[in-house]
Prior knowledge:
Layout: H1 3-36, E1 45-52, E2 67-73, H2 80-111, H3 115-118, H4 121-156, H5 168-200
Antiparallel strand pairs: 1-2
Helix pairs in contact: 1-2, 2-4, 4-5
Amino acid sequence: MSTRWLTRLETLFTAGLVLGCLAALAAFAASVLIAFVDLPNGLGIPLRAFGVPPTGIAADGATLSNATIQVTVRPGHPSPLTAGLYLLLWAPPTATGLLALLTLVRALRRARSGDRALFSAVTVTLLRRLGWILILGSLASALLGMVAEALLASMLLATNVLFYPPSSALLSTLVAGFIALSVSEIVRRGLVLLEEVEGTV
């Protein structure tokens, strides 16, 4: 891959990192407002609702038994508990994404220095770190998100659902983590072979 494309990728991921940090600050500010400020219309908390009776959705001749929808719930009054649970809902996956982007930016910055910098022990370390960030982050996000969403739903929705499965995005993140670990092992073995070749020359 040419240096030009590596530079473009680094710029893209850096922009994503900056935007992600701004989004995290906005979500944190929303959590603080939910906890302590009594707003007229409140701030919305996104939740999933299962088994919703569908009315007027099905076309003629089709029947629906239930539906799963994404709803935005606005608490009627300030609640630190609600804000804390909302924080657990968005903070772990956001932190995982930001740490992963930071690691990618560092790896791309090294890769622009040349092929020898790309195939180095530092690159192996960065790829391995990226893999574990994605794996551990997705597992923590799934666990905390299931608990937080179930508690929020019991407080804000008239439902009795106790289990909220993790989203498909978290499962994709978990797979990406294992791919990053696999790539780090490939680079490590390639580095060993390169060192052996250089040692025999």
